[in-house]
Amino acid sequence: MTTERREPAADADERSMLEGWLEYHRQTLAWKCEGLTDAQLRTAAVAPSTLTLMGLVRHMAEVERSWYRRVLADEDADPIHYSDENPDGEFLVTEADTWQEAHATWQAEIEAARRNAAGVPLDAPTRGLHRRTGERYTLRWIHTHMIEEYARHNGHADLIRESLDGATGD
Predict the structure, then answer these.
(1) HSE (CB half, 13 Å, CA atoms) of 150?
(2) Beta-bridge partners for 43
(3) Would the pLDDT of 60 be above 80?
(4) How far apart are CA 136 and CA 124, in angstroms?
(5) What is the CA radius of gyration of the chain?
(6) How confident is the model at residue 1 (pLDDT cuts 50, 70, 90)?
(7) CA 10, CA 5: separation in Å to the nearest integer?
(8) Domain ranges of the chain
(9) Which one-letter DSSP state was computed for residue 55?
(10) Quick one: residue 38, left, alpha or beta (phi over 0 = left, psi -120 to 50 = alpha)?
């Protein structure tokens, strides 16, 4: 499988631009994981960090779920990998964790995000409240935050991938 990334058109309207850059960054993370074994995807780049590509994918599944299901749509969606007792659970991968499961879960959360965002005006307040801040946001804010979240973690993914097999790229 070869991940195709496309930047949004330079003259796109605001919504298309935001959603285009979000998709671009989702595809970038998938690209950084492409062609690696489960063992490589569970390998941390630099001690003492435990950050792995699989952990990043699991984290982004949680972030997609939180913003687009809990906050935007006010769905009752429990965490997938973490808990109050284990707040970093998505990052703590074990030999039992597989790419197939992590990728499928992430893709399911992306599909739920797309579905929940479809037709919602960019400036409408969210139906749900953020669990830590108690605030409502707008879809514009969520999309912008998600672009930032992916961009930051894609930088981590760049370094992890390079440490695994030397592959580099934007």
Answers:
(1) 24
(2) none
(3) yes
(4) 10
(5) 16
(6) low
(7) 15
(8) 29-165
(9) H
(10) alpha
Architecture, CATH, for domain 29-165: Up-down Bundle (1.20)
Tracing tokens 């492409």 back to the chain, one arrives at 34
- Residues 24-53 as b/e (b if ≥16 CB within 10 A, e otherwise) read bbbbbbbbbbeebebebbbbbbeeeeebbb
Integer Cα distance of 58 and 106 in angstroms: 7
Cα maximum dimension of the chain:
47
Nearest Cα residue to 60 out of 36, 81, 37, 43: 81
Output helix, strand, coil percentages for the chain, rounded to the nearest 5: 55, 0, 45
Number of residues assigned to the chain:
170
Structure tokens at 61: 């599944």
Q: Provide the token pair at 19.
A: 């959603």
* Amino acid found at 93: V
What is the rounded CA–CA span in Å between residue 98 and residue 109? 17
What tens digit of pLDDT does each residue of 75-120 get?
Answer: 999 999 999 999 999 999 999 999 999 999 999 999 999 999 999 9
Q: Tokens 């630099």, residue?
A: 46
Give the whole-angstrom CA distance, residue 25 versus residue 46: 23
pLDDT tens-digit readout, 12-26:
999 999 999 999 999
